[in-house]
Design brief:
Largest sheet: 8 strands, antiparallel
Radius of gyration: 37 Å
Order of helices and strands: HHHEEEEHHEEEE
Number of strands: 8
Shape: globular
Strand order of the largest sheet: 4-3-2-1-5-6-7-8
Helix content: 40-55%
Strand content: 25-35%
Structural class: alpha+beta
Length: 225
């Protein structure tokens, strides 16, 4: 009887161990499945995250290439456009401004590139150091013909408001630094002052077309590139 009771107990223990082992195995498998689900969920979340490929300045304030160039030039510029324009006009006696634009020289330093026209319409290119205000170069194209000179004279005659007035109109509409002023013909054939204004807060450029006869703003465009 005792041997039979020991056998019965061994069988009972064996059944309990088997059940326990099966439960442990099921728990381990369940844990592994949960880990796999979590891992897959993490990968899906990462792949679904949108990537910023717009190229525009990020919320952190990153500037694009053009904005960085404007910031670099204006930060180093000590001479404003109007003073540079007067210097260019003095370089050629009796001349008037046709256009002026901020750029850089061969060394990467800021430079104003101006074009002025003499009383007969002959145009001269005058470059002014934007740090010192001194003339760095003055060149007159000898290939200008009578038609070129007449075109310059006609544009100046059509301009009833000055470049200074046009620039003031632009900066009254958009606060910032003037980087370009040019006397040009509009698509409709009228003569306009084209003025570029850069806003230091964003380093975006706003371009204006201002009627050279009456000073009205005909067009305004913000260039964020």
């Amino acid at each position: 009887m005792k041997r039979s009771n020991r056998g019965t107990r061994r069988r009972a223990v064996g059944v309990v161990c088997a059940v326990a082992a099966s439960f442990a195995l099921l728990s381990a498998c369940s844990s592994d499945d949960g880990d796999d689900d979590t891992s897959a969920g993490g990968n899906e979340s990462e792949s679904a995250a949108p990537k910023d490929q717009s190229g525009d300045p990020s919320p952190s304030g990153r500037l694009n290439e053009d904005q960085s160039e404007r910031k670099k030039l204006l930060s180093a510029t000590k001479i404003d456009w109007d003073k540079a324009a007067r210097t260019a006009e003095k370089e050629v006696s009796g001349s008037k401004l046709l256009e002026i634009e901020l750029g850089d020289d061969k060394q990467g330093n800021p430079e104003w590139d101006a074009e002025v026209a003499a009383s007969d319409g002959t145009a001269t290119d005058v470059r002014i150091d934007a740090v010192t205000g001194k003339v760095s170069a003055s060149t007159t194209d000898k290939d200008q013909d009578a038609d070129d000179k007449k075109e310059n004279s006609d544009k100046l005659a059509a301009a009833k408001i000055t470049a200074m007035k046009a620039a003031d109109t632009a900066t009254e509409s958009k606060k910032g630094k003037v980087t370009s002023v040019a006397l040009d013909d509009s698509d409709s054939g009228s003569t306009v002052w084209s003025v570029d204004v850069v806003t230091p807060a964003t380093w975006n450029k706003t371009s204006f077309d201002i009627d050279a006869a009456n000073g009205k703003v005909l067009n305004q465009h913000v260039d964020q590139d």
